[in-house]
Fold:
Amino acid sequence: MLVRRVVGDSMAPSLRAGDIVLTWRRPPQNGHVVVAWQAGREVIKRVAAVKKDRVYLLGDNPDVSSDSRDYGWVKSGDILGVVMLRFGTVKATRAPRPTVPSLVAVPYGLALYTVLVLVYQLLNVSDLAYFIQWKVTGGNLLAVRLAVVAVLLAQLLALPFWLRMRISPALRTFSLACGLLFYGGLFIFNAAAWVSGISLERGAMLFGSLSPLSAAVSSLVLLAAAVWSYAILDGPKVAGRLK
Structure:
């Protein structure tokens, strides 16, 4: 899973410079828009043809696109992901100046922790699914799968706000909401594990070495840090207006 910002207009009008795309690793097919590794850099193109272990890539805007017409067929192994979601940007803006510049380490620390938890959950997705099935969805398999995907996406989409990336105002606000949703859910999950006495190896989200009560308290501290980061990163100007 990759998140990339479109640079240039070689895929216009399908994708515009500044758009954010979310990719998923899957076999490319004709018509797919993909992120590929070519000549030491990443490119975003459309698959025009597939031949055994190679693909032919073209830009939707041939007048400005450098693609397989220039560098030939691309190995399928160099396809980093297929674009699954696109977030259009009206105008990418700089993140608001932090109200307390010396404390920007707090949201950056949250970003690092979010990445660690995301990797942990991807490596132990069955444990996350077990907890959701046991506690949240009542055993509905479709609901379990949707909930697992929602938890993983919330963490991934929270990163642009914590990292103060140059994105659109709407996406910055959405990213903040995802971050608060994730850390709020983290606290609820650990509190439920503490109250219910469920094994922390099953759904405690990187708190397996702590007691249930300590895990709940620690996740509450993280939630407070997430809310505090909203103030540190100039919450009233989260939509992107500069001082």
Observations:
- The chain has two domains: 2-87, 101-237.
- Strands lie at 2-5, 20-24, 33-38, 41-51, 54-58, 74-75, 79-87.
- The first helix runs from residue 68 to 71.
- Helices lie at 68-71, 105-123, 125-135, 141-162, 169-196, 212-232.
